[in-house]
Each structure stands twice: as structure tokens, then as C-alpha cells.
Structure to design on (233 residues):
């Protein structure tokens, strides 16, 4: 990062907003020391089902299992709407700003788990993403899922393809709906793009937040119908 860039756009912590140390800053640094320590604690939490650390857990939600998702990998557990958790603040930050530094940070955190799936698969791997709603994309000027997917693809040296599209100009927020309505909304909100054939391929599906898994499941079903050999969320 050049001195001029630092002066015009001083690097701040993605979670708390404090200025970061310019001189020791790497391009994948996005958190201050205090928030980074919180982040590491969040990544060390264990799954109540399998007992593995969250970063090693592959447990899927019931909906994702029905959609034949092969695995569900995550960095930390999201806590619905709360801004006191560092992982939530990081996610809200990439939703609300076009901060490439935080995208690089998350890419760096995810690249090893993605690389393991790529090296273990006998078939070609492609990356895709759950597209953001048009209204939110216009409001904030970014699609954080697409940014993450394309960044991961570059680092892992695998192709990134847009395979899923939104079907409506404005979708109701999933968080505002009851369980049954969430499932129906997710099914109706997405469709495969034209020429979305991924026959025989392993598809990495990137989304920034998964709660019930309805959105990921709806997209995974579309990818399966397009011929995906496996879908990793």
C-alpha cells in the first residue's frame, strides 16, 4: 500500500475501526491485535455435534443434507444480528463497504480448507457464489459473496463462474421470515444462469452467512441439476 493511498484511505480495523499500524501492515491484515485475538478465539470454538473445531467441522444443516451438499465448511459461527461478536462485525463490514483488504483477509483464512478439497477431488473444481439481492447491491455497491469467490479462485488457481442468479428485482430478507417462509422464499429467489452446465465438476459454493441453510440448499439443488458431481458450501 503506497504512502499516498494510506493518507487518502487510512487502513482501519474491519471490526472496531481503529487505525492499523501502517509500517507492519500486510495486504491480508484487516484486524487490530485485540480484534485478531477475539477472531482466533471464535475460530477455536467446537461444534456441539461432532466435537471438532469450527474450522474443521464439516457438519451440514438438515436442509443442506436433503440438498445433497457434500460438506459445509466455515470459519466461525455467526450469531444472528449481534454486533458484539468480532466475526459478525467483520461480515457486516464486507456487506456495507467495498474493503478489499478484509476480502483478502478472509481469503487467506479460507484458502487452505479450499485447497484440500481441490487436491482431494479427482474432478475439476469451480467456484461460484450466492448472488446478493439487487437492492442491497445497489445500496452498498458491492456483492461480498462474489468478491470472496473471485478472490478465492485467484488464490487457489481455480476458475470462478457465475452459475446462479436472482429471479426477482427485490427479495424479502430471509431473517425477517418464519422457517417455512424462508424455505419457500429461497426456492423461488434463485435460478441457474444460462449455460450453467457443471457436469462432473466439484463446485465450491460461497456465501457469507449461513443460518438455517435454506439459501445454500436452494442453490446447491440448482448446481446438482446442472450436473455438479459434488457441492461444497
Amino acid at each position: 500500500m503506497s504512502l499516498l493511498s494510506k493518507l487518502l484511505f487510512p487502513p482501519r480495523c474491519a471490526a472496531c475501526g481503529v487505525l492499523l499500524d501502517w509500517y507492519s501492515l500486510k495486504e491480508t491484515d484487516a484486524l487490530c491485535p485485540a480484534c485478531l485475538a477475539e477472531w482466533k478465539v471464535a475460530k477455536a470454538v467446537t461444534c456441539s455435534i461432532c466435537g471438532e473445531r469450527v474450522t474443521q467441522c464439516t457438519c451440514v444443516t438438515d436442509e443442506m443434507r436433503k440438498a445433497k451438499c457434500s460438506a459445509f465448511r466455515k470459519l466461525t459461527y455467526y450469531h444472528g444480528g449481534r454486533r458484539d461478536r468480532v466475526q459478525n462485525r467483520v461480515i457486516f463490514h464486507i456487506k456495507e463497504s467495498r474493503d478489499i483488504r478484509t476480502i483478502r483477509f478472509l481469503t487467506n483464512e479460507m484458502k487452505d480448507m479450499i485447497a484440500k478439497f481441490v487436491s482431494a477431488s479427482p474432478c475439476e473444481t469451480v467456484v461460484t457464489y450466492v448472488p446478493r439481492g439487487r437492492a442491497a447491491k445497489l445500496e452498498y455497491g458491492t456483492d461480498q459473496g462474489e468478491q470472496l469467490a473471485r478472490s478465492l479462485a485467484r488464490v487457489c488457481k481455480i476458475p470462478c463462474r457465475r452459475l446462479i442468479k436472482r429471479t426477482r428485482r427485490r427479495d424479502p430478507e430471509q431473517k425477517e421470515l418464519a422457517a417455512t417462509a424462508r424455505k419457500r422464499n429461497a426456492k423461488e429467489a434463485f435460478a441457474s444462469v444460462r449455460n450453467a452446465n457443471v457436469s462432473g465438476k466439484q463446485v465450491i459454493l460461497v456465501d457469507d452467512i449461513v443460518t438455517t441453510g435454506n439459501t445454500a440448499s436452494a442453490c446447491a439443488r440448482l448446481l446438482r441439476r446442472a450436473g455438479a458431481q459434488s457441492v461444497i458450501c
Remarks:
- The mean pLDDT is 89.
